[in-house]
Amino acid sequence: MNITTDWKDYEIIDMANGEKLERWGKYILIRPDPQIIWKEKSYPEKWKKANATYKRSKTGGGAWNFRDRLPASWKIKYNDLEFNIKPMGFKHTGLFPEQAVNWDWMINKIQKAKRPIKVLNLFAYTGGATVACLYAGASVCHVDSSKGMVAWAKENVISSKLQDRSVRYIVDDVVKFVQREIRRGNTYDAIIMDPPSYGRGASGEVWQFENNIADLVNLCTEILSNNPLFFLINSYTTGISAEVLGNILKINMKKYKGKISSGEVGLPMSSSNLVLPCGIYGRWEQ
């Protein structure tokens, strides 16, 4: 399990009964998590201090219950990176703190490369990886089909004072964008993707992880430079093993000399030896 212990503005305070008690800066939230199947709370009294709770509806979806009035958004930092947090309608806050282990890994790879690195960030969401790669000195092409998520990514880049770095923001279907880049002859030294389990592109294109991920990775190999630095796949799709991501990279990166690894990312609970598994990754690196 890959975890980071560098967070100061985020922590899991407790977790039990399908919920996690989290601190985001100075605000405390309760959100559901299907991995938390045990019932015993370690710190029952601390749950009463939550500022807001996200409750799922029996008919699907859910809603936030606010005990206190919270700002529409607030900022938290991870080392030198700064992000805008906003409680969203579908339980999310716009940031996945467990991804900090991948941010650290990417920053290290880019800084040690000692050469200009072009990064393509696909399904780039609110730009956590974009911010990390810009911070490390890379140029980044940020692609997501949601106009709102791309606007949020721009906010995060500005909050981290990286707006003067080389970054392109593209609102488009990922597959169509990659196909156009192939035709244009554009190449990248590093590719990051965090595809959803299910989604729709900018023009209603359907994406389903199990049906489309292998073809997309294969397509992306056509826009890799002759000297690629890394290829990172993240996934939160239920039922998919990290080894599957490793296998997809083994099949598609055969012509490049490098190392492949895969595993889980997670978050530690404060004052505890418990770790919450949060997702999987597959990495190819030079």
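the 2nd protein, sequnce then structure:
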Amino acid sequence: MLESSVDIKELNEKIQGESSFVDLITMEMNKVIVGQKQMVERLLIGLLSNGHILLEGVPGLAKTLAIKSLAKTIDAKFNRIQFTPDLLPADLIGTMIYSIKQEEFVVRKGPIFANFILADEINRAPAKVQSALLEAMQERQVTIGDQTHKLIEPFLVLATQNPIEQEGTYPLPEAQVDRFMLKVVISYPTKDDEKLIIRENLSEKFPEPNTILKPEDILRARNVVREVYMDEKIENYITDIVFATRFPAQYGLPNISHMINFGGSPRASINLALASKAFAFIKRRGYVIPEDVRAVCHDVLRHRIGLTYEAEAENITSEDIINQVLNTVEVP
């Protein structure tokens, strides 16, 4: 027991040293992004956990600006892809073109070959394009012709979708949505934040973040994040939460059984554990506490719970289900 506590102490000191850059990144991001503290935090969790993020919010809430600013603080390559109904997979991953000079077909790489990809309005592109992007996200590689090309690390996809417009969109199937580690819902800024946004945009020079890290620093930090200590009690808590979305009646929630079509997949458990470790790292702690799990639970699970027609008829959302689960499952 004593040896274990010494290890935790050492690990805590190591994490505090390794996570010092988090405050620097947050400070640089705050120069540009006003008020969206949760979005910035979730971007860091995705980056440190090697996971992709689906952002949902109305236009004009600084989604593009956030990922551009993050890419600038890390000296990483950034590409923005506007998804449209006429987009082809080749427009995303690249294609083979004939070179007259070399008298052979050569690979022309597409915009997917970057550290940070902003897939703007992902639900506007047809299924073939969506699946090409999601394969790249899952496998971290793309195949062009007969050649397979590894994508550069770190590789983070931030996909946005507009929740208002439904015309001319292709909703993502559940299996594809499951590939996103987090689904973050962004709301409007407060009045004070909005006044500050107006001032910044009307000033002579718009603030720009400074480059403070290299991509290698992020890759090293990812390895440290996995070292964050997670007790077996926390592991049990995570599995209980996910299992309560699958078999609510077994966890004292028979009233929501008829509202859930399907619960969280094993990917939900993995991502909830990883996101909790990353959240503890951001808070500069070497161990995970139940509050870390609760803090990231909504973002990890909200797109992984399928609702029945009854739930939709009663205006019950996945948020309501998660709240009930968190209020019922015993906290260690």
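The longest helix spans residues 2-18. The chain has 14 helices and eleven strands.
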